[in-house]
């Protein structure tokens, strides 16, 4: 076996050389993962190209994960060069060119058709899993916070569970450990810090107000994204994007004004979470220009581990073991041993739903992901109202609906 690192858009031949390269990341990056799976099925490669989610979002050109070539298999087709190229995101055509020509590889007449039905089923499974895990997490998270109102420890347990799961997966080789360097961790540090702040702020919010209200306010995140990008980064957006902010801001404002159990700490927690996650995305785009590329499951695992390192000392300083011990005894008296299992479930499902979310970005377009994220928030709001019997006024529901509609319009206008 021979190991070679390939760049996006390069031509792979039987000798593993690079006779030509043609790259246009914004157009050609996304389909590379599908292509690598096709090559795997044909036996040409023994490891899949792991496309970094962040690379696609930024349109940047970064090295792919190591691709191990089966030289003996390639020698059998010495006269047939293989071209790694790609069509637009979620393209319906495969892009393996038997003659080594990028143009031929992109010719629909010479490329086999991807099973569109199977792709749609796969996306549907991703969405169903993502939404279900998120709903379950929010339910158990709120149960824990109702009985044990210590959001800093609850947030720490969520990150600790995910870190433990991934460290164990790497140790037993269930998942291949990422090959990262110091530059990667340096680039990830501000992302992890923003992620930590956003995670804790959201948990603080849920400890003070209804789950539905927290998620209604969090639907305003696109407004924060546009405002920060416009006034701090100098980016410009088309008029429809700005117009889509009107229903988002108006709907959230209406929902906040008519919330029966309004709490300023809960409201500010959700707002801070929005702002933190916007900066997390900005730092992600900047950090991806340095260090090695890590995608999907492993990227979120590294993010969880570093966030846990940041969060743990603050959790001990702000709440501390004495408060936790007293609160735990009270929770045991009120709900019994169920509190233990609720804490386990909320921690595990927090990691799982985020893991599926990051993995899905490797398979679907950003527009599809944005729409799915909007519908996920709807499912959480509706399910939490039903399960916790949250009182809600018609005008409050209208405000929530307007905000969610604005989020959907934003996702359309942004594209």
TrEMBL record:
Topology within the bilayer: Multi-pass membrane protein
Transmembrane segments: 123-140, 152-172, 239-258, 264-283, 295-318, 338-354, 394-411
Sugar phosphate transporter domain span: 122-411
UniProt-annotated location(s): Plastid, Chloroplast membrane
Listed InterPro entries: EmrE-like, Sugar_P_trans_dom, Tpt_PEP_transl, TPT_transporter
Compositional bias annotation for Polar residues: 11-22
One GO term (biological process): monocarboxylic acid transport
Region annotated Disordered, chain positions: 1-22
Keywords: Chloroplast, Membrane, Plastid, Transit peptide, Transmembrane, Transmembrane helix, Transport
One cellular-component annotation, GO: chloroplast membrane
Pfam families noted in UniProt: TPT (PF03151)
SUPFAM superfamilies assigned to the protein according to its UniProt record, in alphabetical order: Multidrug resistance efflux transporter EmrE
MF GO annotations: carboxylic acid transmembrane transporter activity; organophosphate ester transmembrane transporter activity
NCBIfam families assigned: tpt (TIGR00817)
Protein name, per record: Sugar phosphate transporter domain-containing protein
Natural source organism: Ceratopteris richardii (Triangle waterfern)
């Amino acid at each position: 076996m021979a190991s070679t690192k390939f760049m996006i858009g390069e031509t792979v031949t039987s000798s593993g050389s690079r006779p030509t390269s043609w790259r246009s990341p914004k157009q050609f990056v996304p389909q590379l993962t599908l292509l690598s799976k096709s090559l795997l099925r044909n036996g040409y490669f023994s490891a899949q190209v792991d496309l970094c989610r962040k690379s696609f979002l930024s349109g940047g050109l970064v090295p792919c994960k190591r691709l191990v070539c089966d030289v003996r298999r390639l020698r059998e087709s010495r006269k047939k060069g293989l071209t790694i190229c790609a069509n637009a995101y979620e393209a319906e055509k495969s892009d393996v060119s038997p003659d080594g020509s990028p143009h031929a590889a992109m010719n629909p007449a010479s490329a086999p058709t991807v099973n569109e039905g199977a792709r749609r089923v796969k996306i549907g499974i991703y969405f169903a899993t993502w939404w279900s895990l998120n709903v379950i997490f929010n339910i158990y998270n709120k149960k824990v916070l109702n009985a044990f109102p210590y959001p800093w420890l609850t947030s720490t347990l969520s990150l600790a569970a995910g870190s433990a799961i991934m460290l164990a997966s790497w140790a037993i080789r269930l998942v291949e450990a990422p090959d990262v360097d110091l530059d990667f961790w340096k680039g990830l540090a501000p992302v992890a810090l923003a992620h930590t702040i956003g995670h804790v702020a959201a948990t603080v919010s849920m400890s003070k107000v209804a789950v539905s209200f927290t998620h209604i306010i969090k639907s305003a995140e696109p407004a924060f994204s546009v405002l920060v990008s416009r006034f701090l980064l100098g980016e410009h957006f088309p008029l429809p994007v700005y117009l889509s902010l009107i229903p988002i801001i108006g709907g959230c404002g209406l929902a906040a004004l008519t919330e029966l159990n309004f709490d300023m700490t809960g409201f500010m927690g959700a707002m801070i979470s929005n702002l933190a996650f916007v900066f997390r995305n900005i730092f992600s785009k900047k950090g991806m220009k340095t260090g090695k590329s890590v995608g999907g499951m492993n990227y979120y695992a590294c993010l969880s581990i570093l966030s846990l390192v940041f969060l743990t000392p603050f959790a001990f300083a702000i709440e501390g073991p004495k408060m936790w011990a007293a609160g735990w005894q009270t929770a045991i008296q009120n709900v019994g041993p169920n509190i233990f299992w609720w804490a386990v479930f909320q921690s595990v499902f927090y990691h799982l739903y985020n893991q599926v979310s990051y993995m899905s970005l490797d398979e679907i377009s950003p527009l599809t992901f944005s729409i799915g994220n909007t519908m996920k928030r709807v499912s959480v709001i509706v399910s939490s109202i039903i399960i916790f019997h949250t009182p809600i006024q018609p005008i409050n529901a209208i405000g929530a609906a307007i905000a969610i509609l604005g989020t959907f319009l934003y996702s359309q206008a942004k594209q």
